[in-house]
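Re: the 487-residue chain
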Amino acid sequence: MTKKHTLNLVLNEIQQVNDPTILKCTFIVLDYEKSGNNAIVEKDVALEGGKTLINKPIVAKYNEADEANSPTDNFGGHEQYLGEDRYGELTVKSDTVPIGVFTTEGYNLSVVIDGVSREVMAADAVLWKSRFPDACDLLQEWFDSGIKINTSCEYLYSNFSFIDGIEYHNSPIYFEGHAILASEDRGDIKEVLPAYESATLLSFNEINKFNRLVAQAIDQKDDKEDENMPELFKKVCELSHGDIRSLLYSKLDASLAENEYSWISDVYETYFVANIYSFSEENEFDKYFKFNYSKNGEEVEVDLESKSEVKVKRDWVEVTEVQQMQNSLEEKETKLNEIQTQLNSATEKVTALTSEKDGLLTKYNDAATKLTQLNSQVEELSPYKDQVENEKFEKALNEKKEFYAAKFKALNASEKFGEDAIQELVKKAVNEDEEGNNAILQLNTMLVDMVVLKQEKEEETPVVREVASKRENLIPTSNDFESRFSL
């Protein structure tokens, strides 16, 4: 989610120029320390986001004086309120109007405030003086009275983290605009204080009394760069555009006369263009000059001898060339639309997959909840389960004991049935597994063996048909037929 952050700042510098329609000025946008909003934007993040400052508006809500020549006019705040856009959607609106615009990207500066040097990010701008004379005159009045002129910077961010209770705003950030705020209690409006202590006014108008108090903060190194230094480290140590611009200011301003002042309008790889103006009565001018320069590590050298006056150049090109550029632009726009369509399709798929994922996650959570409940119920019923299983086992064991006790008793082997080995086999016979089957087989084998043994013993015992009650000669002594064969 993209969030908006507001920082209260102050006007850093304003200069008069020959052009009566504008006021050139410089704002301290922010420093890299903790603000009054308990937030920190580190230097590299701020300077990267500072590239989005160029062409962003400077806005204000100017409240007119109750009557002429009365100190009751003032600026408001952001003047934001909730309203509906053209589609009927709720949005944030503002009653401020643009009174100027930033003309450069943000760049790093070192400012001296109350004898203390601090690094800040600054940017150059113009105010439209002829369009908003009352607002610009109020700014002039405040400065002449020594009143600090407060402004507020807004930027959008979505990547942030909390460290030790401080909110760090990470890349990317996009500056949206700046509002000039009430800087003293006037009329019915109270002063809006800045969030950064370093956001102080360096100079305002009074160009002939102006002393530049800004200088680029450069870390000087005693040792030369190692030739074997990795390329990535070398790239990190290169000067940024803001660094070069600030160094060029320091070199150029040192060469100017007392009543000459500079404004660097464009910086290129090997040269830059500066607007130099003089308010000397003998030699008043406002011209543009080109200077060559070179970079040497973290230093720049300006070739002052290469100074040459320049003017803006316009080129006339054939319509066919314009048409070719237009065709190329349309082709790129078509490709961009195709890519956007693919991106939208991919976004829809991601949304669908995310929804499906959320549904599966919900089901998983429900199943996990039910499983937890079932596990809890299982734990509660576990003692009863053990009791039932023990009762079932005891019942089956008693049935087995009664069954085999009867079998052994029929074979006159009750004493053998009481042996520990036989009782162990009976216990195992209760189990309905391979061990139980083996136990039953052994018991049945024993019974069969005892039956066979009993039969063998019965066959070995002679059968007594008749027992004589008297002892006499059973074979008659007579030899006649009747004596021998009659009963």
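Residues 319-410 form the longest helix (92 residues).
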